[in-house]
């Protein structure tokens, strides 16, 4: 009996899945809640907007790192629907840094063959920011490398409400929704072709979702680090991926 059991366990360690885990499977889609710019700046006696500028630099480095590691989709939380509550000068600084980021790194994103996409509501977004969104999306639309999805003016609950409105508008008056199911509803979300995130990383230690990918993250693995976003490096991303590989994703099964 014991002999049989030990054979069973030996056999188990050599399944294809175990081999993949040992080699390190790269998650296809990683989401990042880029938090901690303000605390990073405060620790240095700098203004919060300087923290956001360094946060942009970390985003550039991590996009490259994710692309080198073979990640297909990287969704980053850049500005939430709740972030409008911040002081007007901080919101203005974030918008300016957004414009600067896409101007300064235009060539670098092209060199990575990076396709840039945005998810979020376009309501209240300043005109120049909208123009940048449209340009960055259109000029990168045919690229085949990593997809950098910027969640900007994004709220997970807002996305679900927008999906309901979109579904009702598409169906027209008096439509019958009795056959609506999860898969058909998904078609009305912002980016229905993007697979759900496998792994969600949050920097700066907070253990909450803050309205990020509420529908899509239903079965994502979560990984939180105390590292503040401007300090987040490729090694941290690798640590998160290696931890992800030790997880057992059960999706409600056994
Ligand atoms: C995240 O950093 C960036 C945005 C929300 C735009 P924070 O600005 O939230 O940084 P902390 O949480 O105050 O340190
Ligand atoms: C989440 O961070 C939003 C972004 C990273 C863009 P917040 O700093 O806004 O989240 P809370 O307020 O700590 O929940
Ligand atoms: Mg924060």
Report on this model:
By secondary structure, the protein is an alpha/beta fold. A six-stranded parallel sheet has the order 3-4-2-1-5-6, with helices on both faces. Helix 3 crosses helix 4 (48-69), helix 4 packs parallel to helix 5 and helix 5 (88-104) runs parallel beside helix 7 (127-140). Mean pLDDT is 93; it is low at 8-14 and 17-21. It has a domain at 26-157 and 197-241: Undecaprenyl pyrophosphate synthetase (3-Layer(aba) Sandwich). The chain has ten helices and six strands. The chain binds 3-methylbut-3-enyl trihydrogen diphosphate (2 copies) and magnesium ion.
What are the key terms here?
single chain; 254 residues; alpha/beta; Undecaprenyl pyrophosphate synthetase; six-stranded parallel sheet; binds 3-methylbut-3-enyl trihydrogen diphosphate; binds magnesium ion
* Bound small-molecule species: 3-methylbut-3-enyl trihydrogen diphosphate, magnesium ion
Sheet with the most strands, sense and barrel status? 6 strands, parallel
Strand neighbour order, sheet with most strands: 3-4-2-1-5-6
Order of helices and strands: HHEHHEHHEHEHHEEH
Mean pLDDT: 93
Number of helices, where a helix is a run of at least 4 consecutive DSSP H or I residues: 10
Identify the CATH homologous superfamily of the domain at 26-157 and 197-241: Decaprenyl diphosphate synthase-like
